[in-house]
Amino acid sequence: MGMIGYFYRADAAEVERLRADTAPLWEDAADGKLLDVDKSWHVIHYVLTGSAWETCPDDPLSQLVLGGEALSEEDLGYGPARVLDAVTVRQIADALKSWDQPHFRASFDMKAMLEDNIYPLMDDEDEETLFDYTWHYFELLKTFLHNAAERGDCILSYVL
Predict the structure, then answer these.
(1) Which of 38, 44, 138, 150 is a good FRET partner for 60, with 20 to 30 A between their CA atoms?
(2) Neighbours of 122 (CB within 10 A)
(3) How far apart (Å, rounded) are the C-alpha atoms in residues 70 and 82?
């Protein structure tokens, strides 16, 4: 199965309701509230930050995958869901505007990712296949963030 990354769009009122019950995070949200980025989440974080696990409160891009505050103490499998408030979502969406495919490719360092044990890389991984896979999910995530920012929504991220 593996560690699958999810992003869930919610307004501030829904975030408060979810603090008591995270069950809606697993619903198949047909209204575009849920985005599954499969196993690409860690590679995306690494490409955007050059870091395996670190985040910096002053760097919106480092907040996207691993940042934010814990929604609750409930461990969803690989820690709690994390909340990015609407202001941070807007900052991230703005920071991602300049990330086109050449920019993303220039920051995609397969050798460094293997050395830093970035999930889900393996030694025999084909670089172009991994790049295409990650780029596909990054484009979906970028659009998802843009739409959330336009709506003034928060984003919850979690790994199952």
Answers:
(1) 38
(2) 7
(3) 4
- The listed CATH number (3.40.1760.10, 3.20.20.70, 1.20.1250.20, 3.40.50.2300) that belongs to domain 5-159: 3.40.1760.10
Integer angstrom CA distances of residue 151 from 11, 59, 95, 146: 9, 22, 17, 9
Give the Cα separation of 108 and 21 in Å (integer). 37
Residue spans per domain, the chain: 5-159
Contact by Cβ (8 Å): 116, 50: no
Q: What tokens were used for 80?
A: 């709690």
**Separation between Cα atoms, residue 52 and residue 110, nearest integer Å:** 13
State the Rg of the chain over Cα: 15
Beta bridge partners, 5, equal 159
How confident is the model over 39-87, as pLDDT tens digits?
A: 999 999 999 999 999 999 899 999 999 999 999 988 888 889 999 999 9
Q: Which pTM does this prediction carry?
A: 0.93
Strand 82-84 to 5-10 pairing = unpaired
